Every structure is written in structure tokens, then in C-alpha cells.
Amino acid sequence: MTDAELRAAAARGEATPLSAMGWVRLALRALALIALIVVFVPLHYLYRVLSYGSPFPMLFLRYAARVCGARVEVIGTYLKRDVFFVANHLSWIDILALAGASGTAFVAKAELAEAPVVGWLASLNRTVFVKREHRMGVAEQINALKEALADNWSVTVFPEGTTTDGQSLLPFKTSMLSVLEPPPPGVLVQPVILDYGPVAEWIGWIGNESGVNNAKRVLARKGTFKVRLHYLEPFSPEDFRGRKAIGQESRRRIEEALLAILGKPLRPFEYAVAPVRYEPKNEDRTAG
């Protein structure tokens, strides 16, 4: 089968067959990732005993991206502190690339915190977990954001709510921007474009593909690939009325720049699949 046929089969939920060398590459990269966890996680906890911030999650994610084959290139200048990054979303590699480059934390739904391993790793990098329907409360969300900004100096959100193929841009779900209502003093919004170039559709996690199969395909891939992080001009959220206006301005800037990068019109996203949701706690299910 061709790569395009394998990609289409994966999007239908079919397991991707690997060659013998593919399995070898997968095993070696998985072992390298485990080694990074063994080295950096204890260093992170030890550092936290002595100081509030820690450089080790950033270093772990940077090297993890390289182990997975990503060669990250930063285009433009990212703000180093007091910034809320808004980005398009293709893959779990996005998190490794963005956090490895800038040390950013992420805003995620509270259900992610309950996911085994994933939730724990996300918490290491100061992820702000926001409960659905604002149950957490605006004041507490702002406090969590301030703590993340104090620790990581920046926070990233993927307002599309799911991953795409790099050739599309979905409507932004602005509920994840609720931490900017009202915006903390001095915090700016900076749109970011993740550009995987010709490998975008192979890397992208779309359709009915399982997370395990996507990770298997990416880790078994031969060679390396470029991930270009285009940091666009920042703007003040205070110039826009509410999260919807902030989301619209962010999307307008990302769409305009993405059109220039691709050199062709964006196409409709083929796979209308809801984002993965994690089972909430019993008290969340029963809450009115």
C-alpha cells in the first residue's frame, strides 16, 4: 500500500502494518522516551523542592520531540512571559514542539487530569485544567492561569478542540479562552501556526484513528521531519470584548498566515469526529 492508502486506512480506524525496520525504530524511540522520563522526572521533583520553577519539563519535551523525529524551527519571535498562545492543532507532537521551544504550559479540559499517565505528564508542565460549564469559577481559573504564568511564563490553548490535517482550520471553540475574561493585567495573546510541511497529513491524528496507532505510525516513521512554529504578532486582549472576539481575531490572523504558508486555499475538514473526552468524576456526572 502507498503512504496515502495507509493514511486513509488509519483514518478509518484500521491498524497500520509496520515493516521489521519500522518495529525496530518504534522500539528504539520508545526506549529513548522512557530513558528521558527516568532522567528528567526525578530531576524535576528534586528541583521543585529547592525552587518554584523548573526547567526540566521544557528540556524533557524538547528532547522528546527530537526522539520522535521532529526538528523544530522557530519562525518569528515568541514572547517569553505574560503571554497566551493560541495555536492550530495537528498532533500530540504539537505539545512537545511548543513546550520544548518556549516552555509554555497548556490549558486543557479538567477531564484530561483523570487520564492515566497523560494527565500526570500534563501536570508536570503546569497544565491549567478548566472544568466544563465554568464549574471551576472565573476567579479560580484566573488564579490558576496566574500560577501557570508565574511558573512557565506562558500558556497555550488549541481552540479548534481537535486535531486536523494541516490543510484545514476549524471554527474556534472559545470556551477555553474563558481565562481571559477578564484578561490578567499585562498579558498579551500571540497566535501561533504549527506547520509540518509535506508530512502534515501523515503526522496528523484525524478520523477514527486510535491514539496508539497514531503514536505507532509516528514513532516507526523513517528519518526526521520539520515542524515550523510561526509566531505571529501579539495583540492585547483588552482591545476586544470578550473571549469570542478574542477567538475571532486569533483565528483571522492564523487563517491569513496559513493561507500564505500553504500557497493555496484551505480545504474543508473531511473528518467530523468529536474530540476525545475523558470520563469525569462521579461528582461531576451528578452535579446539576
Radius of gyration: 19 Å
| SSE order, one letter for each helix or strand | HHHEEHEHEHEEHHEHH
Shape: globular
- Helical residue percent? 40-55%
How many strand units? 7
Give the averaged pLDDT, no decimals: 84
- Strand percentage, roughly? 5-15%
Strand order in the sheet with the most strands: 1-7-6-2-5-3-4
Briefly summarize what is shown.
This protein has helices at residues 3-11, 20-50, 56-67, 93-102, 118-124, 138-152, 200-203, 211-220, 242-262, 282-286, and strands at residues 70-75, 83-87, 105-109, 128-130, 154-157, 188-195, 225-231. It has 288 residues and is α/β, with parallel strands linked by helices.
How would you portray this structure in words?
This protein is α/β, with parallel strands linked by helices and 288 residues long. Helices cover 43% and strands 13% of the residues. Strands 1-7-6-2-5-3-4 form a seven-stranded mixed β-sheet. Strand 3, helix 5 and strand 4 form a beta-alpha-beta unit. Helix 2 (20-50) crosses helix 8 (211-220). The protein is globular. The N and C termini lie far apart (51 Å). Mean pLDDT is 84; it is low at 275-288.
Keywords:
alpha/beta, 7 strands, globular, seven-stranded mixed sheet, disordered C terminus, 288 residues
Topology:
Blueprint lengths: L2 H9 L8 H31 L5 H12 L2 E6 L7 E5 L5 H10 L2 E5 L8 H7 L3 E3 L7 H15 L1 E4 L30 E8 L4 H4 L7 H10 L4 E7 L10 H21 L19 H5 L2
